[in-house]
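2024-03-11 09:14:02 INFO worker-7 job=invfold-0412 stage=load source=structure_tokens
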């Protein structure tokens, strides 16, 4: 894989993140109009910081650290691309409720269609997969390991507990998501 592919991948990643921020802002306005509110605002900068650090570290490790893609780069890159399909499916399934922030509309039923039929947090699974696979595809192993661990810490310590707590309080999340795993899907529902 030549370095040109790296710049194309980085441009695609930046465009994707920019489009997601625009969509998230539009959705946030709509959610607030429905009586929704935000929780976890204090840890949101940590989440943003992880993503910014991911982009910067990946760029620097590949361009300045002279990381070389392994000969088996198609495997992690294919996993990264499959994660993007799951990301689009997750965003599409949540519709106007998808956001980069934790926004909840009291009394609304959680989405249990699409990938949410099988697991609680498919979009977080996407992030976990992409932080590990994209750097690995380009030989940026430090970025893959360090940012994956940092991201898991932020997700498990702050993000997921805050999201699940407000959903349990404000929606029928507990009943609707009963039996669904956080990370790995249970393929056969009862």
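2024-03-11 09:14:09 INFO worker-7 stage=emit residues=190
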């Amino acid at each position: 894989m030549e370095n040109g592919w790296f710049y194309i991948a980085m441009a695609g990643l930046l465009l994707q993140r920019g489009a997601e921020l625009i969509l998230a802002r539009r959705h946030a306005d709509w959610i607030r109009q429905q009586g929704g509110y935000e929780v976890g605002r204090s840890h949101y900068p940590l989440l943003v910081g992880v993503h910014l650090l991911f982009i910067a570290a990946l760029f620097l490790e590949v361009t300045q650290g002279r990381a070389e893609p392994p000969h088996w780069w198609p495997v992690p890159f294919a996993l990264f691309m499959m994660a993007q399909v799951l990301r689009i499916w997750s965003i599409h399934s949540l519709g106007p409720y998808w956001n980069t922030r934790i926004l909840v509309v009291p009394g609304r039923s959680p989405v249990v269609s699409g990938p949410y039929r099988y697991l609680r947090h498919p979009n977080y699974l996407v992030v976990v997969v992409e932080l590990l696979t994209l750097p690995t595809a380009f030989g940026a192993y430090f970025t893959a390991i360090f940012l994956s661990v940092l991201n898991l810490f932020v997700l498990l310590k702050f993000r997921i507990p805050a999201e699940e707590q407000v959903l349990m309080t404000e929606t029928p999340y507990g009943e609707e998501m009963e039996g669904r795993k956080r990370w790995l899907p249970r393929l056969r529902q009862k």
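2024-03-11 09:14:09 INFO worker-7 stage=report msg="The chain has six helices and two strands."
2024-03-11 09:14:10 INFO worker-7 job finished
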